[in-house]
Amino acid sequence: MENLMDKIISLAKRRGFIFPGSEIYGGMANSWDYGPLGVELKNNIKNEWWKMFVHQRADVVGVDTALVMNPKVWEASGHLKEFSDPLIECKKCHSRFRADEMKGDKCQECGGKEFTTPKQFNLMFKTFIGPAEDAANTAYFRPETAQGQFVDFKNILETSRKKLPFGIAQMGKAFRNEITPGNYIFRTREFEQMEIEYFIPEPKKDKDWEKYFEMWLDEMKRWLKHLGISDKHLHYHDIPDGERAHYSKRTVDVEYDYPFGQKELYGLAYRTAFDLKNHADKSGQDLRYTDTETNEKYLPHVIEPTWGVDRSMLVAILEAYHEEKAPTSEKGEEDVRVVLKFPKWMAPVKVAILPLSKKEELSNFAKDIYGDLIKDFICEYDETQSIGKRYRRQDEIGTPYCVTVDFESLEDKAVTVRDRDTMKQDRIKISELKNYLSDKLK
Ligand code: GAP
What we know:
32% of the residues lie in helices and 29% in strands. The protein has 442 residues and is α+β, with helices and mostly antiparallel strands. It has two domains: 4-71 and 141-317, Bira Bifunctional Protein, Domain 2 (BirA Bifunctional Protein, domain 2), CATH 3.30.930; 349-441, Rossmann fold (3-Layer(aba) Sandwich), CATH 3.40.50.800. Helix 2 (36-55) packs across helix 9 (309-320). Glycyl-adenosine-5'-phosphate binds next to strand 11, strand 14, strand 17 and helix 9.
């Protein structure tokens, strides 16, 4: 029986959400492209995140920084030295694995039992700036967006005139030369992050930073609810000493029950003043904050909530995927309705306009409705195949409303609106259609 991941990968390809990368050349392992519906879904998630955490908060501003930064950034941040995974190689088939993720003591590819001793493999992607490929011109693609916020901290502080506590948000690509990418878009070598570096006053005692940590944990929970993720699939894992990233004094991983196991979805870390201190030392710049009331100067500490965009997409699709017994098929056979029940704000297409016939008279009438609705909603117009098949297609891509235009519409100037989840149909006057849909999609 096809498992859930296979069904989702197949639906996502068939309907234009996610394609294998470079497919016409035989693909490239673990690289994926977002198609027309995938990019809409992704943009909806990113825009909603930006709205919730930047536009709707007085204490957060946004930034968009370079992907390739001065290599000194990565020396200061500790990534050149610390950002590595233990790599081992099977002596028989030369397959490579992460030593910390080995299942059992045998090679998963050939059953071999002998491995090389683990060596630390740095995950940053190297490149060269300019034509000379030598050490002096080596640079790295950023492995996290976060360093952009730290490096621009002084400029942002001076131009935005924010007072502590305040956050700097960024979303964009990050690159990691993962040893074992896989599980579809769960772990890839290029992916997108949405990160907030939330700068807080230097704590005098533990409670001072813990309250901000708790505040962001609550904010992450609020986001998860908005994304439509059921609580029963979520776990909060406090990472023990010795297992946290090199910069973190406390980390809580938000984990999700994927079909391939319970694994990380998002993270929340207390980065202390680690990054600002190292950048101040390395750059020789004064990155301290001046408290305008006490005139005290200090390096702010940082709470960092971080969200993966691609993992958000994956869990959003997994949660939305439903198979329901269809009440009747066109041929009277038992049938299954596959429907992506995305929250309405997330659906890539909001309204489908479906004339019951291709006859010019009806088609033109329906196209006028489409032309008007498209000014306010993302719409699709479809006049091919039977109405049943067109409903199924819209269900499979998660379109909340289908507007059916029939011959009576020409007379009574009304259309039928079908609700994706309840499949209930309402007859609505065309003059009231926009208001009706706006209300429903709110
Ligand atoms: N700035 C902190 C940081 O980068 P991280 O836990 O390494 O922390 C943050 O990454 C988030 O980025 C993860 O919670 C996950 O959602 C996403 N992420 C990390 N590596 C990924 C990969 N190889 N593929 C897809 N998403 C990834």
